[in-house]
Amino acid sequence: MFDFLKHKPKKAIPTFEPLGIDIHCHLLPGVDDGSKSNEETLACMQVMNDAGFKSVICTPHYQYPRFPNEETDILNRFDSLRIDLNGEGSPVKPQLIGVAGEYRVDSGFADRIQKNQFLLVGNRFLLVEFSLHQQVIGLDQVMFDLQMKNHEVILAHPERYPYYSSSSSKLQRLKDMGVYFQVNILSLIGFYGDGSKRKAYEMIDKGWVEFLGTDMHNTLYAQALIDATHDRKVIKLLETHKFLNSEVTSPQPFKTKNI
Length: 259
Ligand SMILES: [Fe+2]
Prior knowledge:
Layout: H1 3-7, E1 21-22, H2 38-50, E2 55-58, E3 61-62, H3 71-86, E4 95-99, E5 102-104, H4 109-115, E6 125-129, H5 139-148, E7 152-156, H6 169-176, E8 180-184, H7 194-205, E9 209-213, H8 219-230, H9 232-240
Parallel strand pairs: 1-2, 2-4, 3-5, 5-6, 6-7, 7-8, 8-9
Residues 24, 26, 102, 156, 215 line the site of fe (ii) ion (FE2).
């Protein structure tokens, strides 16, 4: 009798409205392991709109040699995507408001720092990620070099690095240096496993986490985002905890922080 309910596709609810902006996703098609087409991007954006996001900043991978992206090409592709999906009179939401990068701290990273060759989130923040398998060698020097160039750094999904616990002295050191942390929304529902889920909440409880991001890659992630909008613990978190996503494009968002 309730068969039609069982098969009714669940729709996202606007749980993430307080965030406003998604600062981490892979919706620029064809440049990394994210979206493969405008259609796939569109399907993901529909869910993000239902989930409460008003704006999106695309952050394709820059990772040597797997994703040898180049800033000029990324900017051109983003302009085309924006014309196709958000062009004048288009009803498509959310707005694609910017393109930056998720920069892997790898063997090519020192060269990037040297050239100061980065696209920044909100024209201000440098989003970086580490390998999921091994710790960065010489991380202190990398962070020092970034600070010498006055970069304000956001570390993507600290909860996903298996070699860091939520009480890691290395992560504590990054916080002491003023590095911002961005947890993946899907970690909060166990999309990457129980360990990442536990660490995500523990880091939030410690006051370490300034940003949430979807890290949306494709429609599989979009389905999981729908589930996240209905998760009671996630709903409570968004009601009680202030994240800084919506301030990422403000000129002076973080008066209490001094990097
Ligand atoms: Fe990512």
